[in-house]
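Hey,
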Amino acid sequence: MSQHNRVISKEEEALYDRQIRLWGMEAQSRLRNCSILFIGVKTVTLEACKNLVLGGIGRLSIYDPQPITRLDLETQYYFNESHISQPKDKVLAEKLAVLNPLVDIRAISSLDDVAGVDLVVSIGQQTAGEWRQKGVKSILADSFGLFGYIFVDCLNAHEYIEEGRTKDAKTGESEVVRSSKVATYKSFEESVKVKVAGGNALRLARKYSPLVFVCQALATMDERVQAEGELEVSQFIRDALERRELPQGFVGDELLERVQASWGTEFVPSAAVVGGTLAQEVLKIITLKDMPANNWFTYDGL
């Protein structure tokens, strides 16, 4: 970890007592010594960062120099009228610092200065390939309308600890058994291009949610296409699905219409669910407790 194995103080032990009882001092120490970077500030960013700061991570860096607009005030609840035109990352860092003064929280001015970062979380921006090349674990996530998705890339080998219970043959008492596991992750590029074999649409639907393929298409869409408007977004998804040779009717028109109507909007309750799940995946990666999602999580609020 990047924080030079800082020892948890008595003050921190008291503050984090409940979660230390849940996952142990070793896991809390990993949190205390980690450094996480968030790129992009949206409602889902607020939700995830809030949970991680309260959980006691060591350092949180935020990058999004875009100015706060009046539209942001409708969904990003840490911002108010006085913050309009100020950089999103700077204001969010100040607000999060109030929640837990023991966490080092900062807005950074450039992505060139990210030495020592353990995990990068990109919100609505496809940068997973870039961080894999640098050997840094990353997450890509977004929330729009009632929908959301999370993509996790823990590189070629992620070690984690799996816990289970077994009964002692002599006493019959239940005891916790811990075993070390290793998970291998596909890159973002591999995961969005793989063609799925499986016959007709009904058979494929038993194994996969159509929303997974829709979100994968959206995650590959660059800013130029997004700026073209609703028709281009919808057509981009259809073209991407066709290239993957999915069965006719697997992704229905109703789902595509709902996604199109939701794209570019934020709905706080859905963002809260996605942000909470995102924070859970970050905790799994850092604490090495349980296997993180491999690779995709999608959410539909209906």
